[in-house]
Every structure is written in C-alpha cells, then in structure tokens.
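re: ur msg from earlier - yeah i can do the iron/sulfur cluster complex, just paste it... oh wait u already did. ok heres what im feeding in:
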Amino acid sequence: MSKWIDICLVRETGHFISQLKHLGSPSEYTMIFQRAMLDWYEKNRRGYVWRAQADPYKILVAEIMLQQTNADKVEPVYANFVKQYPNINALMQSDLQTVKAVLRPLGLEYRAARLKNIAEKLVVEHGGEVPSTEEALLVLPGIGRYVANAVLCFAYSRRVALVDVNVIRLYDRVFGFRSHKNRPRDDGEVWEFASKMLPEANFKEYNLALLDFTARICALKRPNCTGCPLTGICLCYTKGALTNGN
Ligand code: SF4
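and the outut:
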C-alpha cells in the first residue's frame, strides 16, 4: 500500500488534524499539496492590479470590493475608485453619493457607507493608517476574519490563512476535511486546518494560488479534474465521487 493511501485511511477515520499537529512538521502529503499549488500558481496566476499593491489602504479597498463579487468585474471599478480616492483622507472627505456612483457598476452601493465609515475610523482612531493587528482590523465596520487576514497577509506579509467557501470546498475534496458547523467559514477548526496547511515560505503565493485554483480548476461546478495536478492525491477524485463532472 502506498504512503498516500495510508494517509487517506488515517484522515478518513477523522484523525488527520491530530496527525498534522503531532507530526511537528508538515507531512509529506501536505508538502505534495503545497508544491502542487505553488507550481500551478507560478504558471497560471491571475495578474489583478491590487496584487501588485503594497499599500494597505488599497489592499483593504480591494478586499472589501471582492467580497462575494467576481474579481474580473471588480478590476475596472477598483481602478477608478483608487484613482478618485488614492488614500484614506481622500475617501473620508468624499461625498457619499459620489462614492455610491463609483461602486454602482458592481451593485455594491451599500458598501460606499461602509468604506467611508472605515476611512473615518482609521483617521480618528489610527492616525490615518490601516492597523496591522487582527484585533484592530476586526472591529472595523463590516470586516470579518477573511478580510482581516487578507490585509495582514498581502499588506503586512503575515503568515495567516485565508478561508472562504472555495478553499473549504478544495480541502474537503482533496483531504476529506469537512466542517460540521452551520457556517463552516466561522468554524475555528477549519481555520486551524487551513493555518496548518500554510507553507513556511511563499505563504502569500500559496493563499493566492488557492484563490485562483478554486476559480479555474477545482470550481464548484464541473471541476477540471483532467487538467488538475492533484489527481494523484485528491480523495474525491480517487473515490470517483465527482461523477458527471460535478
Ligand atoms: S482532482 Fe478534481 S476534485 Fe480533486 S482537486 Fe483536482 S479538480 Fe478538484
């Protein structure tokens, strides 16, 4: 029996997390997954403008726009937004109706007030800077753990995981790791699992790789298993659980 099948059997009995914990270092299986994601990303990355950003404000703006919104749709609106409001002060002093109009193509008008509230709070309470701690980010209006971690990872190079419905689906399909909570995105065990999957280096690229891979290959409907580098280790694939391309 090959090594990865041994690991499949272990995780099917529900001990995969404790195995990761007790190993003290990434298992061979985890490293195969990390390498596959990073290699795939190297060749297939999507070059959105906010990914070239180092400015925490612009990264925060992008992450708020990307909430439940297709990235391709966000790109032109984001470019226009940061041109009109290039910094936190400009956004704070802006007219709400004008901000709404800028966001209108995304149907995100309700986020105009949120962005302005955030800008005001940042100016009043943080000296016009985006904070670099999870605690401070989480008390900003409408900011949850995903956006907070995205800012920490992409703006401040912190080694933190990003968990959304797509990442949850990927870990479920490949590792058989599934949350039993009503809202898996709020499940601490899911975040813990995702944190343990992060490589020591290149964690920023790894997080971006998962976003792109789940959009292009392991999509919700009709995952492209034939073009997937994970067929040798994917539990769902090896079990034949994805029939009819779904
Ligand atoms: S083999 Fe298919 S289900 Fe498994 S990770 Fe790849 S695309 Fe997703």
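cool cool. The mean pLDDT is 88. ping me if u need the other ligands too
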